[in-house]
Amino acid sequence: MPEAVAIIKDVYKIYQKNKAVPPVHALDGVSVDIPRGQYLAIMGPSGSGKSTLMNILGCLDRPTKGDYLIDNTNVAIMDDEELSRIRGKKLGFVFQAFNLIPQLTVLENVQVPLFYQSMPKHQREEAAKAALDKVALSDRLTHRPAQLSGGQMQRVAIARALVNEPSILLADEPTGNLDSKTGTDILNMFDDLHREGLTIIMVTHDEGVADRCQRVVRLRDGLVDRDEMMSNTSSSLA
């Protein structure tokens, strides 16, 4: 079994706007170990806690109680500045809505995660070009998002997520805004990244997408309801 790149240990997330209303237990003692190189899907009905778990995995939020380790470092106790540094160095994000900056070119959009790492401009550009080459968009460097198709915009978003060579790629419904053919092309790209050894964590409601993963963690009412290793051919990609 490969070493764990991420460990969620007995994590609780409790929201309480004020004392006049009962607290909401979004996560109620979740523990998940994620081996390096695994392709993991997180699923569950609305209100199950999957978005909260994804936010904690992405260092966008902290647990109320419990530990979260990335590469053996407990990020649950970090302040905002330290969390921002971890996000920039260890994590890449792909969103359903692409989240590209309309005023920037493709090349500039991909460089955005590197702006906060004090990297010289020529190094940022070379890293961005390499990431865009990986997603077959080297011929679109000077285009802006409005000049691209949905599939091309998502490939730019994937390049942006890869540019910092992250330990973990997090994807939140990455094919939700795409037609079926384009969505399949994007999922094939994720398969290729997984074959290369990248750890991928994907939130999805689509069983067909989950079937491509090695493992599916299903949440319900803030708890792990089922944790399944998949037996299909996609689960042996790595």
Please, could you describe this protein's structure?
By secondary structure, the protein is α/β, with parallel strands linked by helices. It has a single domain (37-62, 79-236), classed as P-loop containing nucleotide triphosphate hydrolases (Rossmann fold, 3-Layer(aba) Sandwich). The protein has 7 helices and 10 strands. It has helices at 50-57, 80-90, 106-111, 121-134, 150-162, 180-195, 207-210, and strands at 4-15, 24-35, 39-43, 65-70, 73-74, 91-95, 168-172, 199-203, 215-220, 223-229. A 6-stranded mixed beta sheet has the order 6-7-8-3-9-10, with helices on both faces. It has a 4-stranded antiparallel beta sheet with strand order 2-1-4-5, with helices on one face. Strand 1 (4-15) and strand 2 (24-35) form a beta hairpin. The longest helix is centred in the last third of the chain and has 16 residues, at 180-195. It is globular, with a radius of gyration of 18 Å. Mean pLDDT is 92; it is low at 233-238.
